Amino acid sequence: MATTLITGGTVVSSTGRAPADVLVDGETIRAVLEPGSTLLGHDLAASVDRVIDATGRYVIPGGIDAHTHMQLPFGGTFASDTFETGTRAAAWGGTTTIVDFAVQKTGERLQDGLAAWHELAAGECAVDYGFHQIVGGVDDDSLQAMRGLVDEGISSFKLFMAYPGVFYSDDAQILKAMQVSAETGLMTMMHAENGPAIDVIAEQLVRQGNTAPYFHGIARAWQMEEEATHRAIMLANYTQAPLYVVHVSAKQAVQQLAWARDQGQQVFGETCPQYLYLSLEEQLGARGSEWGDFEGAKWVCSTPLRSREEGHQDHMWQALRTNDIQMVSTDHCPFCMKDQKELGLSDFRAIPNGIGSIEHRMDLMYQGVVTGRITLERWVELTSTTPARMFGMHGRKGVIQPGADADIVLYDPNGHTSIGVERTHHMNMDHSAWEGFEIDGHVDTVMARGKVIVDDGQYLGSKGDGRFVKRGLSQYLA
After folding, report:
1. Handedness of CA 393, 395, 400, 403 (dihedral sign)
2. Is the whole model's pTM more than 0.90, yes or no?
């Protein structure tokens, strides 16, 4: 098997940084050595198949995006990225593992949904992938099927407190599913919004003639997120199930999570780049020459973008520093404006919900290092190490240490990345939610299980490089 020596770089982990050389043997990391070490021979560089000079660059574990939706059926259409196109875009951005969501809708068998997602992904992915299980119909059959998920390498499932008639679970169903979670160790993931109340508000807005994308954010008010988050926390408290709240966007929801954690509850939260950078006023309320006030449809997602005037974005950054929010994923669920988002041209309720970000997460979060929002180590922790621990992959993923998969990114802090459709854009969509963003850093080289798949502006990988990752139980629980 081929050997590679990465030399001259600064290895960054969640706990520190230091100059070090990394020896890759086949698909795994064999050694992390002090510069000049003779532990494995006096001229190690001469004995390997390839030497990569990482001088001036950070050597970090490949990113893990633990919340993606490839080919998700939603609103009468499908997310525009396939597993092939979406994982290729992930690779370009330094993400070497994704965890997508296998879908069971109401009335379907859980096992059939999981099998369908395996079929969609197998042989298509550029990087490694795992699955969470969406449980869209909690009944006796699905509750029994959930007990076998861990044996399938799936240690987490997702419930929805929103989208009545599609994925929605009521409190009784949530309680029953959480009881299985407590018994098995499965992580309960929760979309925490009060869906029935949101539907009433949305209907009232449309009846008043308020149909533009801006009102998507008004309908899904922060009170609906805070209330649902608190309700999920209390149900988890009663059942003693671990709880992971996805795509947290409202500062009030963060406060609920912080309160529960201060009581010692096993409650965790993720946020996404859109809730750190984008806003109700600037994006959902945008106007453009082509789309008019429908321009904001580009940024329709749920939970929605929040008001900058209310300070949600600053609070999210603060929560990342204080560990009230543990992770940053993307909730990558892209839709084109043409033929997809425009389904809601006359009614925001019909706009497919989702933003494409998988290619840009590592860069956008690194910009937080540049601006002093987070430390370099916290960047690695939020985007790689904690996702691995939270979802049962740590030791194999999320670290640069002997025995780990050789998922490695060389990141140049002196480089520059301009985001936009005509610049850096490999996602299968006709616009960029991040058009015009400038990043003071650059992904130079990406290695996935020992194979260089991106290097010097060239894509060297292929579909089928990625393999299914069987995950264990969460390693983040006390």
Report:
1. negative
2. yes
Tell me which residue of 159, 149, 145 sits closest to 191, measured CA to CA. 159
Divide the 478 residues of the chain into consecutive groups of 10 and give the mean pLDDT of each group: 94 98 98 91 91 98 98 92 98 98 90 96 98 95 96 98 94 98 98 98 98 98 98 98 98 98 97 98 96 97 98 98 98 97 97 97 98 98 98 98 98 98 94 97 98 96 96 94
Q: Which residues contact 38 (CB under 8 A, 6 or more apart)?
A: none
The residue among 437, 309, 312, 311 whose CA lies nearest residue 367 is 437
The 3-state secondary structure of the chain, one letter per residue:
CCEEEEECCEEECCCCEEECEEEEECCEEEEEECCCCCCCCCCHHHHCCEEEECCCCEEEECEEEEEECCCCEECCEECCCCHHHHHHHHHHCCEEEEEEEEEECCCCCHHHHHHHHHHHHCCCCCCEEEEEEEECCCCHHHHHHHCCCHHHCCCEEEEECCCCCCCECCHHHHHHHHHHHHHHCCEEEEECCCHHHHHHHHHHHHHCCCCCCHHHHHHCCHHHHHHHHHHHHHHHHHHCCCEEECCCCCHHHHHHHHHHHHCCCCEEEEECHHHHHCCHHHHHCCCECCCEHHHHHHHCCCCCCCCCCCCHHHHHHHHHHHCCCCEECCCECCCCCCCCHHHHCCCHHHCCCCECCCCCHHHHHHHHHHCCCCCHHHHHHHHHHHHHHHCCCECCECCCCCCCECCEEEEECCCCEECCCCCCCCCCCCCCCCCCCEECCEEEEEEECCEEEEECCEECCCCCCCCECCCCCCCCCC
Contact 102, 132 (CB under 8 A): yes
The 10 Å Cβ neighbour count of residue 462 is 12
CA angle 251, 254, 260 (to 5 degrees): 150
Please say whether the beta carbons of 432 and 445 come within 8 A.
no
